[in-house]
Design goal:
This protein is α+β, with helices and mostly antiparallel strands. It is built from 2 helices and 3 strands, in the order E-E-H-E-H. Helix 1 crosses helix 2. The mean pLDDT is 84.
Length: 92
C-alpha cells in the first residue's frame, strides 16, 4: 500500500518514507524489508519529481516476499500513485 502527495513546494527533492509494523515480522524481518524497499526506491528516484512525497506502508506479506516480488509491487504502487495524482490535477 502507498500514499502519495504532490507538495506545492518544489524546492526540496522527492522524499519517501516507509512504515513497517510488527505485523510484518520480527525486528530482523522488518529491517530486511525496509532495506529492500529502500534499494528498490533508490533505483526509481529518477521517476519522482521534486516536491513529491511518498509513503509506503508494508503489509504483513511483505516480510515473506522476495526482492523481485517487492520490486513488482513497488512498480505497481508508483503507477497507481501517478494516476491518482493525475486525477487530482496535482501533476503538471
Amino acid at each position: 500500500m502507498a500514499h502519495s502527495l504532490r507538495d506545492t513546494d518544489d524546492t526540496h527533492a522527492a522524499r519517501v518514507g516507509f512504515i513497517v509494523s510488527k505485523a510484518v515480522g520480527n525486528a530482523v524481518v522488518r529491517n530486511r524489508t525496509k532495506r529492500r524497499l529502500r534499494e528498490i526506491i533508490r533505483a526509481r528516484l529518477g521517476e519522482l519529481r521534486a516536491g513529491d512525497l511518498l509513503v509506503i506502508r508494508a503489509l504483513p506479506h511483505a516480510g515473506q516476499a522476495d526482492f523481485a516480488g517487492l520490486s513488482a509491487e513497488v512498480d505497481e504502487l508508483l503507477l497507481k500513485a501517478e494516476k491518482k495524482l493525475d486525477r487530482r490535477g496535482r501533476r503538471t
